## 1
Amino acid sequence: MARRERFEQSGTVLGRKDLLKRLRTNPPLIDGLIDEKKQIGTNGIDLTVKKIEKFVSEGALDLTNNKRVVSKTQKLVFDNEGWIHVIKGAYKIVFNEVISMPCDLVAFARPRSSLLRSGASLETAIWDAGYRGRSEALLNVHNPFGLKIKRNARITQIIFLRLSNPNNKAYNGIFQGENLS
C-alpha cells in the first residue's frame, strides 16, 4: 500500500480537486482566469487568447544561446466585435493567464479538440518548475480557408504533473517573468 501512495503523490496529473486547491495558493497556480466555471476542467485548465501576433523576421538557435535570436512579431488587431481572421500560416499566441509554477510541478498543454477540428494546431513548450509569466504558444493554421478567433477564446488545456522529486532551484531562464509588464 505504501508503494501505491507514493505513486499517487508523484508523477500523476493533478485533478480538479488539486487544481482548485492550487488556485487558492499565494501566488495562485494560474492567475487571471476569465471564467473559472468554463476554464477549469476535470484534468486541466483552459488557457485563453489575449493577443495574436504574426511573425515578421527569422529566428536563430544555437547550442549555447549566445547567438539565439527570437523572431520579431507584429500584433494583429481584433475587429470591433472582438474577432481576428487568420489565414493559413504560423502565429504567436499570448495567453491572458499568468502561470506560477511551484517547484514540485511541471506542465504540458494540448490544443482543445475544437481547434484541431477546425484545421489548426497549437504547440507549446514545457512549463518548467519555478517558471512564472504570461506564456506564449505557436498557432499553426492548416485550414486553407483560415480560422476566426475571438478575443478570450479558450484555445488550449494545460495539464500539471507532480514531480517525483521537487526541484531545489526554480527556472531562471530569459523567459522568466515574460509578458508581465
Note: The chain is about 15% helix and 35% strand.
## 2
Amino acid sequence: MRTDDFDYELPDELIAQAPAEPRDSCRMLVLHREDGSIEHRHFYDIVDYLEAGDLVVANRTRVMPARLVGRKTTGALAETLLLRRREDLDVMGAVWECLVSPGRRLKPGAVVEYRAGGAHASVTAPVVLTAEILDYVESSRGGRLVRFAPAEGLTLDEAIHQAGHVPLPPYITSYEGDPEKYQTVYAMSEEHSAAAPTAGLHFTPELIERLRAKGVLWEEVELEVGIDTFRLVEEDDPTQHVMHTERYHVPQRVVDAVHKAKAEGHRVVAVGTTSVRSLESAYDASAPVSEPPVVARRFEEASDSSAVCDRGDIVERVNATTNLYLMPGSTFHVVDTMVTNFHVPRSTLMMLVSAFATREQVMAAYQVAIGEGYRFFSFGDAMLIV
C-alpha cells in the first residue's frame, strides 16, 4: 500500500466554492459495499435508505473564529490558525497549538499584534490581542506553540472573537456568504474546532425531523477537529504518517443508544469521518462484551471477511483523546453505515473511507463522481456508503 494509491486528478471547477441551497438539495452518491453498485440521488433522499430503529450519530462540534490575521512588530503580515488549547502548558488557557504563516519568519520570540477588523484595520484601531511565538510543535511543519495576551478589559475568548474569523479551507477561495453556512445546524454553542465536520453541513432541521418521524434515532458526539484536517500524508508509505491527537466525547447516552440499536438488529450510521473516529475510538477491546454481543462485530467487506470477536464493547469517553488512524485493513467495530463528503486526495480521510468500503470501490466511485460533475470537498456533495 502506497500513498499514491489514494491520489486522483480533480478538475478545479469541481471544487465547490459555496454550499448548496438549501443544504439538503446537494447531490448524494450512494455506494453499496456488497457489490460496488452506485446510485445517484439527492441528500434529502437519505430518508429512503434509513429504517426505523437505525441510529444516526453526528458530531456536534462548532468551529471557532480560529483564523487570525495580524502584523508583526516590523509591519509584515502574519496569519495564525488556532488548533488546540494547550492547558497542559498553561492552566489559564493562554497557550495554543497553531499553524502560522509565513512559517520561516515566525520563529520563537516573534510577536504578532491583532486588531479588531483584521490586519487591514486602521493603525489607530486598538490592538485587541497579542501573540508571542514560544516554540515549534514537534513533528508539525508550520506548527508553533503560541502564547496569547488579550488587551486590558477583555478575556482571551472575547479578544479572539473580535480579531478572528471562521477559517475556511484554503481551496475555498471565493466564498463571501454567511459564515454560519460553515457550521452544522445542530452545532453546540461552545466553539472548540478548527474546521467543520463537513458531512453534517447537508442536514437541515426539517430533514432531521423527517428522519425522527420515520423512527430513526439521532444522537451526537463531539470530536474537536484539529491539525490533521490541514495535513496531507507526505510519506510514501502511509503507515509512517503520524496522526495528532484530538479531544473527543462519547457520552453514556450514545453508548446506550448504540447497544439498543445493535441489539434490535439496526444500524449505526456515522455522519462524517469525525463521528466514525469518535465511535471507533470509544470501542474498548478489553471491555466485557454486552449481552447479547451486539457491538463486537463488523460488516464483512467485499474483499475479505473477519471473524466475530468474543470481547470488546463501546464505552463512555469524556474529555478523552484519540489519534486513531483508520486505513485499509482496519476493523470497524461500531459503525455500519457512513455519510461522508468527497475528500482531498492523499489524505487520511481518503484512507478512512477506503477502509470502510474498499480502495477499489472508493476510487471507482470517485471517478464516476468526477464524470457526473459532482461537487467536491467541504461545500461539495455527499456520499452515502451502505
Note: The chain has six helices and 18 strands.
## 3
Amino acid sequence: MIKVLFVCYGNICRSPMGEFILKELVKKDHLEDQFEIASSGTSDEEVGHPVYYLAKEKLEEHGLSCEGKFARQVEFLDYDKYDYILAMDDYDVGRLKIIFNRDDISDKVYKLLDFTSSPKNIEDPWQNRNFDRAYEEIYAGCVAFLNFVKKKLA
C-alpha cells in the first residue's frame, strides 16, 4: 500500500484538489487497492471547513466530487504514516519541518511539481483566484507523480 498525503496551507483548495485528482487517476489505472490518498493543511485556520466552493466547482467541472471532505491539520504522526507527503509550495515544506520536528524531511516530503519538468510552487488560488491554473498544475503534478510511482512498482 502506497500512502500519499497532499499538503497545502489550509486544506480547502490545492491539497484537496490533489487528493481527488490523484484518486481519479489511480482509479482509471485500476490501482485503487494499492493506494491510500488523503490531504491536510499546515494551518489550523480551516479545520472542519469543507472544500472552498471555487475549488469544489473546478473539480466538478472535471467530473470529480469532493463531497464529505473537511479540512484537517497535518499531525506529527503523519510523517511515519505516509510514504509520500506532497506539498504545494516552499512555505508548506518549511512548516512541515516544524510540525514533524525534523531538519531533514527530504526522504518523504516533496513539492508536487518536483515530479514534473518544471519544478516550482503552485500558487494558492484562494489568494490569486486562478483556479484554472492551479488545477492544471496540480493535474500535471499528479500525472508525473503517478508515473514516477508506477515505475517503482514495475
Note: The beta strands are 2-8, 35-41, 84-87, 109-111.
